[in-house]
Amino acid sequence: MADSIDNNIETNIPQLTPIVKLKLPEVRDYYVKYAKENFSSYYNSLVTEVADIGKVLNNMVTNQTTMTDGYNGQRLQTAGVSSDEELQNMIKFQQAYNAASRYVNVVSQMLEQIVTRLGN
Questions:
Q1: Which candidate, 69, 1, 53, 61, places its Cα nearest to that of 31?
Q2: Angle 59-28-42 (CA atoms, 0-180°, nearest 5)?
């Protein structure tokens, strides 16, 4: 009779979480061994164990997220591209280009005037 009850547990609750599905054989064994004990104490211990597993897994996720964020920060530091610094350099080089362009235009005009005055 215990086997039929255990089989009904698996077939009637297909939406169990993976952790509970992993614990199902233990639940079955516990139920067969200690069926005479108080069910509420058994249920409380099962819920406590699942909650402890959840807390451990949650801590693992938190630790991995922290590690990932730290590694990402280190990666960005070694990449070293600062958009403010790059914009500042771009403005500086643009102004230098404009100044060089004006210088070339002035020299070109001077040479043009020299050639036209010598040509007359």
A1: 1
A2: 65
